[in-house]
Amino acid sequence: MRMVQGMWTGSVVAVMVLAGAAVGQVALPPTPAPAPTPDYVPPPAAPAPAQRPIPTVAKPVDVPFEAWRKDGKLPSLSEPLYWAAMRRNTLVTPESWAKITPFLDRRVPQLERVVVDNVDLVRKIEEGQIEKAMDAQRNAEGRNPEMGTLLRTLRPLVMDSLRNELMKRNLITRQQAEQTEKIRRSYVEERSRDWEAKVPALAADATDEQKKEHQRLTTRERMRSQMYDFIDEPMWVYQRLLVECAVKWDQVAAVESFPAATKQKLTPLMAKAKAASDDASRLSAMREVVRGISAEEERDLLVALRSLRPDPATDEGEEAPANAEQPAEGAVTDQK
Questions:
Q1: Helical segments of 53-93, H only
Q2: pLDDT tens for residues 101-130?
Q3: What residue numbers bound the domain in which 245 lies?
Q4: In 10 A of CB 172, how many CB atoms?
Q5: Residue 216 neighbours by CB under 8 Å, 6+ apart
Q6: Whole-angstrom Cα distance, residue 203 to residue 187?
Q7: Conformational region of residue 276, where left means phi above 0, alpha means psi within -120 to 50, and beta covers everything else
Q8: In-domain check, residue 22
Q9: pLDDT in tens, 251-295
């Protein structure tokens, strides 16, 4: 029995050895050669960008406003045009005015300071420098060099537009500003129509020279109005100061800091202005007064008037708006 068992074990071992030898003799397949590297491999395509929704732009609301003309006549304004246009703008609510009014109250003293500091320039405008510059002889290139001089003259009086100042301080919305500008432009257009109606109409057989002159006149008035639009607010403030000088002359004359020589020179000149019964007459009389004194004496007069303010320092509470390179918006209220 033991002999049979040993033979079985040895047979198993022999079979296993033979099997291992047979396995060792089987050949493995060769490793494939690497694929050749191409000369250029294009980068993978970028994923398509996600399409953004196209924003919808709100269409401006067509808000009606009160017509400027009354009985066919365009009214004269007692305040700067942009101010008057805001008052006709129904989008400017009482709540908006509650914020706007204090700002305007601060803006007026700032404008007064600009006028007093530059009263010599204001006098030139009152004397017709805008009209003189526009009528000056053109050079060989067809340009009017006096216009450049005029713009430099006006620059110290040109503050940033009221619209910009209000929007910068979030006192009016974009929609309120756009509607106010629409109303303002309508006044300018009506004003242009009035002027064009005064220009003699061209005959059907008008010559080229007549057509050229007609064009020159209409262009001149349009430019003239625009020049006055640039300085709308300061000129309005200047006229207010002159009227106030007539009304308060006795108080102004009593100001201790008012130079005695200027007061002595002004006293006989002020009689007509003091006797005037309405603002238009006072303004006319005061224009005669200031034509009889120097720019420095007029500055003394305006400084003395401003010293009568309950608190002359109130206009220092906020920095005056910087003079802007671009003209302000508005229209002169008392054009010559």
A1: 81-87
A2: 999 999 999 999 999 999 999 999 999 988
A3: 81-311
A4: 24
A5: none
A6: 29
A7: beta
A8: no
A9: 999 999 999 999 999 999 999 999 999 999 999 999 999 999 999
